[in-house]
Every structure is written in structure tokens, then in C-alpha cells.
Amino acid sequence: MTRILSVTAIRDEGPFLLEWLAWHRLLGVTDFLVFSNDCSDGSDRMLEALAQAGVLTHVPHQAPPEKSVQWQALKSAWQHPLRKHADWMLVSDVDEFPMIHIGAHRFADLLAALPETTEAVALGWRLFGANGVLGLVDQPVTAQFLRSAPPDMVHPIGASYFKTLFRPRAFRKPGVHRPLRAPDAPPAQWVDGSGRALPDLHSGNDKRLSLLPLTGYRALAEMHHYSLRSVESFIVKSERGLPNRSVKQIDLHYWVERNFNSVLNEAALALQTPLAQEIAALKALPGVADLHGAAFDWHRQQAQALLRRPEAYRLYTGCLHAAGSSALPPRLGQDLLMRFQQLEG
């Protein structure tokens, strides 16, 4: 059996955790290593219940204040026995869903379509907008948000970022977006989401997080990225912050750079029936359904409490007015990227 390990670090993701787990179980993930940090919505208690049922391995984690929670979790994950026994590994967040476009939409279908020598697969982000959804609804994110950025959008550069499915044995440590190779190691065999060999510009540079200037890299697989969800959910997220950044703000600029509803994207609907069955099976485990419901209640109450604050109210109204972002013409997008590279300071 091919062992696929999924590693994530969460804080206050209770309403979305079961769908994310169910989706990855459907795709063929065999092992989950989940780090929790400073949860207020009961996510940590839900993880404990799931761990008791044998669904995942839960590691309560508290990084030093000056350290990135996510990077410290990845350091611990690399030393964990689950990593040492994994054939493949994927580091991702609870708002990221791999979408396999071939076969039965499973990782096995993707891996069978790749060259046998493949050691890393760059799964290009596809940004999904809020799709006009204002409030928190207890329904799968992958069914609520069905509009995304176009496939080859140039700007913002985050539209061309990727996450990596990789063989741990070929690398020296993990990263948030891509694993890192040893300085004296031979180049790993990278392919894109269409199964094409990546040029050295991408495969040979551990700091390269964008697939630009490539196009057409999603034919077999990509990574659906629901970084906004609903407006109310975004308000709660803005208060929580990012797991790997302490200074980057979750603000209106963040919203505008991700709220692309340019094209109808129903790819995820192909898995909705088995996904619902898998979510129901997880909810049937002792205590899980109640913890899921409590997490949703906490997020709804948190959103309403935050909206009584002037700064959150301004962000909320700004998000409503910025109802959808427009993909720029490719030439203008390229010009903006060139200007970005020339910025001072």
C-alpha cells in the first residue's frame, strides 16, 4: 500500500476540519499529522476525539512567541515516525483541497499518470472567491464556492503559487510550499500538474514559489485554495491571522488579491456525494458531531461580536463593496510583476 501523509497546522478551523479530512481521505491520504495551536473554538478537542477514533495523529503545539507556529510544526513533523514511513507527503492548510482531474479523482490516478521517476509534483493554486456568500453556513466549502480565478492568471503572483506532493526520501526537510533539497544532492525530479518536467528555473531553486511563466500546468491536478470563504468567515480569519506570518495583515488588500469569481468552476462537485458520506461517517464517531456543531456556533458568535467593533465593521463593508476582483490583461499583469521586482527597500 502506498502511504500518503498529510501534514497541517491549525488554529480555530473547527467548522471546516471535517470536510478537509473527508476530502483527503477520499483522495487516498492514509495518514494525517495535525498540529493545533491556541484554539478557542474547540478544534483541539475535535482533533483529540478524531485521534481517539484512529482517524489522525494530533500534536498539541505551542511555538515560542518569536517563532512561526507553522515552521516549528513542520520541523517537528519531519522528525515524526509517520514521515519516516511515508511514500509521499503533502504539507497544506485546511483551506486547500487537491483536485485531481483524471480517473476517479484520487491520488492513485494522478501518480499512475506521472513518470515513475517523479519525486515532486507542483500543484498550482487555483484561487476561489467568496462568490457573494456573506454568512457562515454549515455546508461544504467545496460546494458553496464555485467561482474561481482563470487558469493562467498572471497577477497577483499568488495565483501562480503551488503546493507540493513529494517523496520525503528525496529531500532534506519540508517547507510550507515546497520541500528543500540538501545542498550537495542531485536535482529532484519535479513535474507540474500536467505531468510535464519542470525547468530548472523552478525545480532547481528552493525559493521559487511561483510557476510563472509556465501555462497549462493544471491538466492532471491542481490545488483549490479557498482562502476567503464567506465574508463573515473572513472577518474571523482576519482576527486570527496567518499560521506562518506574524506581520502580514488579513485586510482588505488580502481580500482583493484573492476574491476572484471570474469563471464558473464546478470541478469539486464530482466528489460531493462520496464527500457527504465520508463527512457523515466522521460525525458518527463519538463526540465529533457535537464538537463540530459547537465550533460552528463559536464562529458565528465570534463574527457577530467582531462586527460590533469599528475596525471589523469597516473591513466587512469594504469586502461587500469589493464584491469581486477582476483578472488583469496578461500584458498589464506582466508589467506589474516587473514593477514588483524593481521595488526599493
Care to describe what's here?
The protein is α/β, with parallel strands linked by helices. The protein has 13 helices and eleven strands. It has helices at residues 14-27, 43-52, 69-79, 81-84, 107-112, 141-144, 200-203, 231-240, 252-256, 272-283, 288-306, 310-321, 330-341; strands spanning 4-10, 31-36, 57-60, 88-91, 96-100, 120-127, 147-148, 162-166, 190-192, 221-225, 263-264. The strands form two sheets. Strands 1, 2, 3, 4, 5, 6, 8, 9 and 10 form a nine-stranded mixed β-sheet that branches. β2, α2 and β3 form a beta-alpha-beta unit. α1 crosses α10 and α2 runs antiparallel to α11 (288-306). The longest helix has 19 residues, at 288-306. It is globular and about 55 Å long. The protein starts with a strand and ends with a helix. The mean pLDDT is 94.
